[in-house]
Amino acid sequence: MTAVIFIAPFNLPVTMRFVHAVAALPNVRLGLISQEPLERIAPELRRRLAAYERVADALDVRHLEGAVKAVAHRLGGVDRLLGTLEQLQVQLGQLRDRLGIDGMGEEASRNFRDKARMKDALQRAGVPCARHRRITSTGEGWAFALDVGYPLILKPPDSAAAKGTFRVTDAETLQHALAALRPSPERPAVAEEFVTGRERSFETVTIRGKPVWFSSTLYDPPPLHVLENPWIQWTVLMPREEDTEDTRLARPHALAALQALGMGTGLSHMEWFRRDRPGGPPVAISEVGARPPGAQIVSINSYAHGVDFYEKWARLVVFDQWDAPPRKFATGAAFFRGQGKARPGTRVVAVHGVAEAQRELGDLVVDVKLPQIGQPRAESYEGEGYAILRHPDTDVVARALRRLISTVRVELG
């Protein structure tokens, strides 16, 4: 039996899909560590757990170390230590190092988590990425702006999903960003050249550092634009074609980036730009995560290939096994985001256009989570709901996604 410990700080639906997938594997004894009380865990999952430990702070390595030791004792050891949350990756690496557990250690984890460190490693490896600088004072921020010019990006070094990221267009917005981030030696920030172009993702499966599979998606519009405009509805498209001009451009840089950063076994998520600047390099790597992608990308892969990619991921990280059939469909996700003033207590008061969308596009929908009247305004960039579409023709899915986000409207109040 393989002994696996999964750290899932919060009982989030997406996180728990990965936990369920590991729990369903044959010949696995699973222990779960969480901040949540055991009674909040789904009964069918509770029955599959060999051990459970609740901690006060599941992002604090001091709390986690004792919990991992306790669960490992009950399991008779530990072969794999897992977690999918971006904010947990360094702690997982620290625990693997301290307790002698196989998998990515702290140094490689920090390469993926610290965005300034990441870009330093990418530049040394010759991987194209934006000019950047770690800044530890407001003066260094002003100096970077003088060197690079506007627009530029300021963000924490451990940002995830573009949270805490500022687009700086002039001296006024730079002053605002620096006041918000307050860079210091203890709390540095990262300043980056603002890269323009069409933003994509690139997912890679590696087994002990060797790439064995990849896929790519198209964002419309880019995630930073989505975060800056909470009312904008957006889409992610996965073409049916596995070998496209995008993948041919990105693949060598993605593989070089993973090697430079120290990726081991897992499903990684890279964001990159296909640049539109004449005379410049056609690719710029934005950042790379050593964990599964968000934005429903794992689910749209499942629908595109006709297999459960959550189960595929579980076999990958537990048994070092991977097999995926050829892609059968183009798929995509449309994210429904509320429109109206964001204030405390804001909730969904109406959802418009659903009947019209159902008449026009219902045959393409394979998964949907519609916003519900009365639900609180979402904090996530994925919004209050989503729909996943599928069809053999990529153009059909692309047109349907655009039509869907122009038809369905979520009203907040």
From TrEMBL:
Pfam families: ATP-grasp
Keyword Nucleotide-binding assigned: yes
Keywords: ATP-binding, Ligase, Nucleotide-binding, Purine biosynthesis
The keyword Membrane belongs to this UniProt entry's keyword annotation: no
Domain ATP-grasp as annotated: residue spans: 119-318
InterPro entries given in the database record: ATP-dep_AA_Ligase, ATP-grasp, ATP-grasp_carboxylate-amine, ATP_grasp_subdomain_1
Protein name as annotated: ATP-grasp domain-containing protein
Organism for this UniProt entry: Nannocystis radixulma
